[in-house]
């Protein structure tokens, strides 16, 4: 069983097994499953239709094609009669073949793609108001090619809105994410959400996501392994005790800032305070000391000149640091203290790893964006390491977390959090307004503050990412678009809302 605020994300192979068990164990006929799937897809979709809409259904020869035909029939019976069915595929499942016969009995206009001039198919797709994608399902093993790839490209070029059945055609667990794929406006998926939908490059291709159950029995659904988890709750933090003061609220030390990037450490420091740290110290280079001291009156600014480092609740290492920090990073690792490694700190770590140096460290959180993640993985596994498919991406971040004995917080349009003991947890904010310079520095400051207070890397990473998303939501609600200074203004409110 899964908690209500964490939804399991499944592999295609496990969903295929679920479908087989629904037929073999629960004795549900395939046509019943297909009928239920088509009806529920239509119920999710119909409110978006108008009677004047021209509907084009792309129907492959598999069960997705059969689902599309069931959707077509329900739409037709509701008065959406301006339809064209485009068939493709030479291998037709028994259930799909039956529904093609039903469509023939209904006298629905149909075209066999392989026997039709592509110019005609292209025109039909360009004139559509909605295209229903029932070409390929979750079991796709490689990139689309030939006529199917051309149909997908033509659908994407049209101005029509696109409904994808189960997954957008061209998306699969082991399919490279740069392969041709339907760009859907909405996707109605069967049984469970699919992990392949939650790669940084694939989530947007699904549009609005809906999950329906085509009569899979609960006792079978509960047995499907979770390949990852989707977090759908808001942050939860204990309230500060009434007698808390600055020393009990945690002390974060930041190693960051440089002449070129003086603002990053300042954003991180302010985020630490807004996330309830009581004290923040900044260790910076001599040439930025005066600037940092003037700009950050609440921060204790120090010059690091090789002195021993006292114990802090956590160290935040890397924001605005600049290159050439490998030796200092090794010294910081050697303290065994809690460390949040961000930005140039991650690149320094990757440089050490690429040279075969793996310094021992204490509890460690890394917060890479995708470019920094690529640098890190290349240093660990080489440039030829496959990270191009959803499966390869998830496996690589799980492997890296285990090999580095660290928690990874991977930043993109989604957030992926993983450590050696946990499943990957995905957070989707659906908030592109957070994609602004300095947003990552704010996030690392939040995480460092929570790490210092609670001494729990997983809690700091998950709750910190959720708080960052909520601050972004509040800022977008108030301003639409904003800079990271403005984001900071909403951070304290997001933290307060998270308090139990």
Q: How would the blueprint of this fold be written?
A:
Blueprint: E1 6-10, H1 12-24, H2 30-45, E2 55-59, H3 63-77, E3 83-87, H4 94-105, E4 110-112, H5 118-126, E5 130-134, H6 146-157, E6 161-165, E7 186-190, E8 193-194, E9 208-212, H7 218-221, E10 228-231, E11 251-255, H8 262-274, E12 279-284, H9 286-295, E13 300-303, E14 314-317, H10 326-334, E15 339-341, H11 344-354, E16 364-366, H12 370-381, H13 390-404, E17 407-411, E18 414-418, E19 425-428, H14 439-454, H15 457-479, H16 484-498
Parallel strand pairs: 1-8, 2-3, 2-5, 3-4, 5-6, 6-7, 7-9, 10-19, 11-12, 11-14, 12-13, 14-15, 15-16, 16-17
Antiparallel strand pairs: 1-10, 17-18, 18-19
């Amino acid at each position: 069983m899964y908690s209500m605020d964490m939804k399991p994300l499944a592999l295609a192979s496990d969903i295929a097994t679920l479908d087989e068990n629904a037929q073999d164990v629960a004795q549900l006929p395939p046509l019943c499953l297909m009928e239920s799937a088509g009806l529920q897809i239509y119920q999710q979709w119909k409110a978006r239709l108008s009677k004047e809409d021209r509907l084009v259904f792309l129907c492959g020869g598999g069960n997705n094609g059969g689902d599309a035909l069931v959707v077509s029939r329900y739409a037709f019976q509701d008065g959406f009669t301006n339809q064209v069915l485009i068939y493709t595929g030479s291998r037709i499942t028994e259930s799909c073949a039956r529904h093609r016969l039903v469509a023939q009995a209904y006298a629905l206009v149909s075209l066999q793609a392989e026997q039709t001039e592509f110019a005609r198919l292209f025109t039909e797709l360009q004139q559509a108001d909605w295209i229903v994608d029932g070409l390929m399902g979750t079991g796709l093993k490689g990139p689309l090619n030939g006529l199917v790839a051309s149909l997908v490209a033509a659908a994407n070029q049209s101005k029509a809105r696109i409904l994808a059945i189960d997954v957008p055609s061209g998306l699969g667990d082991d399919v490279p994410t740069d392969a041709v794929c339907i760009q859907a406006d909405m996707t109605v998926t069967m049984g469970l959400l699919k992990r392949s939908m939650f790669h940084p490059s694939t989530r947007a291709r699904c549009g609005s996501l809906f999950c329906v159950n085509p009569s899979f029995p609960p006792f079978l659904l509960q047995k499907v392994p979770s390949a990852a988890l989707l977090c759908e709750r808001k942050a939860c933090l204990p309230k500060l005790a009434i007698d808390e003061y600055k020393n009990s609220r945690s002390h974060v030390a930041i190693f960051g800032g440089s002449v070129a990037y003086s603002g990053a450490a300042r954003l991180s420091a302010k985020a630490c305070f807004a996330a309830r740290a009581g004290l923040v110290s900044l260790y910076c280079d001599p040439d930025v000391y005066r600037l940092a001291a003037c700009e950050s009156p609440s921060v204790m600014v120090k010059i690091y000149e090789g002195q021993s480092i006292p114990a802090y609740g956590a160290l935040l290492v890397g924001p605005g640091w600049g290159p050439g920090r490998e030796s200092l990073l090794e010294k910081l690792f050697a303290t065994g203290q809690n460390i949040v490694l961000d930005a140039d700190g991650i690149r320094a770590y990757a440089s050490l790893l690429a040279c075969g140096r793996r310094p021992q460290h204490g509890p460690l959180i890394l917060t890479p964006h995708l470019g920094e993640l690529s640098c890190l993985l290349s240093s660990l596994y080489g440039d030829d390491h496959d990270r191009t498919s959803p499966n390869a991406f998830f496996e690589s971040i799980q492997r890296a977390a285990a090999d580095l004995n660290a928690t990874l917080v991977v930043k993109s349009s989604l957030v992926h959090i993983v450590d050696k003991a946990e499943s990957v947890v995905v957070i989707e904010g659906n908030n592109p307004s957070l994609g602004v310079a300095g947003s990552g520095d704010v996030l690392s400051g939040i995480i460092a503050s929570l790490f210092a207070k609670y001494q729990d890397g997983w809690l700091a990473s998950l709750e910190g990412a959720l708080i960052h998303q909520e601050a972004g939501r509040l800022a977008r609600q108030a301003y639409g678009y904003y800079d990271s200074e403005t984001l900071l203004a909403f951070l304290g409110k997001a933290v307060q809302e998270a308090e139990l």
